[in-house]
Amino acid sequence: MSTPTKTPDGLVIVDKPSGFTSHDVVAKMRGIARTRRVGHAGTLDPMATGVLVLGVERATKLLGHLALTEKEYLGTIRLGQTTITDDAEGEITASADASKVTREQIDAGVAELTGAIMQVPSKVSAIKIDGKRSYARVRGGEEFEIPARPVTVSSFRVYDVREATAEDGTPVVDLVVSVVCSSGTYIRALARDLGAGLGVGGHLTALRRTRVGPYKLDGARTLDQLQEELTVMPVAEAAAAAFPRWDVDAKRAGLLLNGVRLEMPEYPKGPVAVFGPDGKLLALVEDQRGKAKSLAVFG
C-alpha cells in the first residue's frame, strides 16, 4: 500500500478566477493540497482576477510579511457612474455625462492620485472600524466614516480611453489603466476618487492583479491546473525571491535556532531570510539595534 505523500511547505501562486473570494480559494486549496494549513497574503476582491499568493504548511509563516509588499494591477475604470461598492458589483447610485471630459483633465486627475496620498478605503470593504467589518456596518444601515490612510501609488498610467454608452443611456468613458501601489491601496477607491475629482463619478469595472512583490502572473496557475498538478514553490526559494538573503555558517545557524540574537550585517529595513550552510531556510529576522530578532523560525 503506498504511503500518502506529505504536502510540501511552500507558496502556491494562484491565478484567481472572478467570482471567488480569497477565502473560497483557500478552501479549494485545502482540498487540493490535503491540509488545513493554508493561508493567503492579502485579499483580492471577488470581482478581481489574477495573482493570489497562498502559503501551504510552514510557508503560512511567510504570509504576513509578504502581504506588505508592492502590488501591480491592470484595470478598467468607468467615468460617468458611481456605485455603492465603487466597483461593478454594486448598484449604481449616480450617473453623469462623461463625454466632455478631456484627456488632459484625466491625466491631471491621475497625477493627483499618484505618489504618497491619503486614501479613504471603500465602505464596502473588509476594513475593521471599532472591531466591526466596514461592509457589515453598511449592510446594517449604519452611518459612519472611515478615516483616510496613507498609501503610495508609485505608478498610475492610462493606456486607452474609450467612449461608451452605459445601459441606462449615459455617455460614459472607459479607461484602461495600470497601477503599481503599496499594500492596503484600494484600486476601486482610486476609480471613485478619479471620477469624483473630474465631477462625473467613477467606478472600477475590471481588475486583474499581475504581481505581488516578486511573484508574477507568468508563474501563477489556475485552480483547474493546480487540481491536475499541485505546483508549490519551495519555502526556501519563495523566501529568497522576496527578501534579502543572509547566509550563516553551521555555528551561527545553531545559535540562531537556539534563540541567540546574533549580530547581523546591515540590510535595508524589513525582513531578512537567513539560510544555513546547506541552503536550508532557517528563519526570517529583522534588525533590532544591530541584532537579529526572529520573526518566524523554519529550521
From TrEMBL:
The active site is at D45 (nucleophile). Pfam families: TruB_C, TruB_C_2, TruB_N. It catalyses: uridine(55) in tRNA = pseudouridine(55) in tRNA. Its EC number is 5.4.99.25. Residues 31-187 form the Pseudouridine synthase II N-terminal domain. Keywords: Isomerase, tRNA processing. GO terms for biological process: mRNA pseudouridine synthesis; tRNA pseudouridine synthesis. Residues 188-230 form the tRNA pseudouridylate synthase B C-terminal domain. InterPro entries: PsdUridine_synth_cat_dom_sf, PsdUridine_synth_N, PUA-like_sf, PUA_sf, tRNA_psdUridine_synth_fam2_C, tRNA_psdUridine_synth_TruB, TruB_C. Residues 243-298 form the tRNA pseudouridine synthase II TruB subfamily 2 C-terminal domain. It comes from the Bacteria. It is an enzyme of class 5 (isomerase). GO terms for molecular function: RNA binding; tRNA pseudouridine(55) synthase activity. PANTHER family: PSEUDOURIDYLATE SYNTHASE TRUB1, TRNA-PSEUDOURIDINE SYNTHASE. Responsible for synthesis of pseudouridine from uracil-55 in the psi GC loop of transfer RNAs. HAMAP family: TruB_bact. Belongs to the pseudouridine synthase TruB family. Type 1 subfamily. This is tRNA pseudouridine synthase B. The gene is truB.
